[in-house]
Specification:
alpha+beta, 60s Ribosomal Protein L30, Chain: A, Phosphoribosyl-aminoimidazole Synthetase, Chain A, domain 2, 2 domains, seven-stranded mixed sheet, globular
């Protein structure tokens, strides 16, 4: 965040990655929604974006790049964001994303720390995008699961962000590459509390748990597990598929919001009424224990 004046600050974020779906237009939409997400998690309003492109020279039809950029531009337009330029380079592998600038009141920035013991944890999107897109690359996933994942990843966190600002939000993070447990650990360690996630309450994309049990696990999931092994605890009763989903890196995942327990049900109801249909209380914060996160 950079303060411009007492009532105005700018926030900047950047994100880009390689294709996770076959359709270049859909990939562009997902990459744009993902890049915009950090601004929404802070409670800001994205205003402008710069495209970031890597594209192979002479090895792929330029129409593919055109479709990627069209998808990104249309998602930016949906968000009320103006794409004002960008930068491209020759790259053997396609890459796309955005650098985004947003605005926010300096006193209303929502950070990913500040969770208080007793807070409820609300999640606004279903989990499992990494598992499903990995299975998609192997042609081992159903059309229903693919559609569910694409719909989730291409949905902006705009409405969820706008709604949460009407509540007492102590902290918020968008759930992306570190997975639910990784981002939860960041929130917990920065707040000196322990987060307890209820495995049976986690919203899960269609087919993701079964795909996880079949071994469609990303490299990022394994890295998350290795990093978190001494920072979290998982009850033995939690099903293997749900464990993997909790570690699973998300692309354009939902918001994880910490609010007072007394406001949690009203927030969920307001989110669902506002079109955030899978908004769910997935856990709670408790006083600091010997680990940062527990999955029960």
């Amino acid at each position: 965040m950079f303060r411009l004046r007492d009532d105005l600050a700018v926030v900047n974020t950047v994100d880009f990655f390689t294709p996770i779906v076959d359709d270049p237009y859909v990939f562009g939409q997902i990459a744009a929604a993902n890049a915009l997400s950090d601004v929404y998690a802070m409670g800001g309003e994205p205003r402008t974006a710069l495209n970031i492109v890597g594209f192979p020279k002479g090895k792929m039809d330029l129409a593919v790049l055109g479709e990627i950029l069209r998808g990104g531009a249309e998602k930016a337009k949906e968000a009320g964001v103006v794409v004002i330029g960008g930068h491209s380079l020759i790259d053997p592998e396609v890459k796309y994303g955005m650098a985004v600038t947003g605005v926010i009141h300096p006193d209303r920035v929502i950070r990913n720390v500040g969770v208080r013991a007793g807070d409820a944890l609300v999640l606004t999107k279903a989990l499992g995008t990494g598992i499903i897109t990995t299975a998609l690359k192997r042609r081992k996933v159903s059309g229903r699961s693919t559609r569910a994942a694409v719909t989730s990843m291409s949905t902006l966190n705009r409405d969820a962000s706008a709604i949460m600002r009407g509540f007492t939000v102590h902290a918020c993070s968008d759930v992306t590459g570190y997975g639910l447990l990784g981002h939860g650990q960041e929130m917990a360690s920065g707040s000196e509390v322990t987060l307890v996630f209820e495995s049976k309450a986690l919203p899960v994309l269609h087919g993701a748990a079964k795909l996880a049990e079949e071994g469609h696990i990303t490299g990022g999931c394994k890295r998350n597990r290795d990093y978190l092994q001494d920072k979290i605890s998982i009850e033995r009763s939690v099903k293997a598929g749900l464990v993997e989903i909790a570690f699973d890196p998300q692309t354009s995942g939902g918001l994880l919001i910490a609010v007072p327990q007394a406001e949690a049900d009203a927030l969920v109801q307001k989110l669902r009424a506002g079109g955030v249909g899978v908004a769910t209380v997935v856990g709670r914060a408790v006083p600091r224990e010997d680990v940062w996160v527990r999955l029960v």
